[in-house]
Design brief:
54% of the residues lie in helices and 8% in strands. By secondary structure, it is mostly helical. Strands 2-1-3 form a three-stranded antiparallel beta sheet, sandwiched between helices. The two termini are 26 Å apart.
Length: 280
């Protein structure tokens, strides 16, 4: 509403200036020098006010990247991921990465954040940490859903076939994932991923430190691979509810995984041999 009021002020002061100008012209023959000076002063005042109001309501320069809205309410992942964590994680942590990647890329050509990933490490810490942080979180939000709905999803035939080929079974894949997510395997802050290899015929479980991801050249030993599932194991993702019990967080997280979305990611990667695009 404030912007509308300021905009209205712009038009009002311009109209008033024009009205006074017309009045001065109609009465030009009876003006005194003092009256002319007063009108000119008023006109100058309102022209400055209009200019100031216009500057205030002028839109800011567009930002290349934005925090995407969650596809569910903050409380939707309860009791497995708590509401306060979701609010802080999405509105504060993710927003900080977005603000910083916008600063890091200011004045450069706007490209999807996915396009920044391959060369992110080479580009330096600002793009690596913040571009990675934006991509990873946007990817993370999209693969989850409320537990009652998640329970009705399952891997597609394509994904299940790759799981069985690569790990033996879904349970064995989950066990490998949880082992990689354990504090001893992913020390400190990082992510754990299920990825598709370059050929599109095998899955692996890998981990990356900080905000790195397998799309970045040099992030993992086997070269670039394509994530279809990822879990944030930074403490900010779980500490309010789980404190130092990361394994419990990881185990509970399976309850909110949207396997339909993971299957969609898998199909995209196998067909395109490229990373999954994200919103924002």
């Amino acid at each position: 509403m404030a912007k509308l009021s300021l905009a209205a002020l712009c038009f009002a002061v311009v109209d008033q200036t024009q009205a006074w100008s017309s009045l001065n012209n109609n009465n030009n023959n009876v003006k005194t020098t003092a009256t002319t000076g007063l009108a000119d002063s008023r006109r100058a005042f309102f022209e400055k006010a209009a200019a100031l109001a216009t500057a205030v309501v002028a839109p800011q320069a567009a930002q290349a990247y934005a925090v995407p809205d969650l596809p569910y309410p903050f409380e939707a992942l309860e009791p497995f991921i708590d509401t306060p964590t979701m609010k802080i994680h999405h509105d504060k942590h993710h927003a900080t990465y977005v603000a910083n990647i916008n600063k890091a890329t200011e004045g450069k050509d706007e490209v999807p954040v996915l396009d920044l990933m391959e060369s992110a490490i080479e580009a330096g810490p600002a793009v690596r940490n913040n571009g990675g942080g934006h991509y990873n979180h946007a990817f993370f939000w999209s693969e989850m859903m409320p537990a009652d709905a998640a329970a009705k999803t399952k891997p597609s035939d394509q994904l299940q076939s790759l799981i069985d080929k690569s790990f033996g079974s879904t349970d064995e894949m989950k066990a490998a994932f949880e082992a990689k997510a354990a504090p001893g395997a992913t020390f400190g802050s990082g992510w754990v991923w299920v990825v598709v290899n370059q050929a599109g015929d095998e899955l692996k479980v890998v981990n990356t430190p900080n905000q790195d991801n397998p799309l970045m050249k040099g992030a993992i030993e086997d070269g670039i691979m394509f994530p279809i599932l990822g879990l944030d194991v930074w403490e900010h993702a779980y500490y309010l509810k789980y404190q130092n019990r990361r394994p419990e967080y990881v185990s509970n997280w399976w309850n909110v995984v949207n396997w339909d979305k993971v299957s969609e990611n898998c199909a995209y990667v196998v067909e395109n041999h490229a990373g999954v695009p994200v919103q924002g």
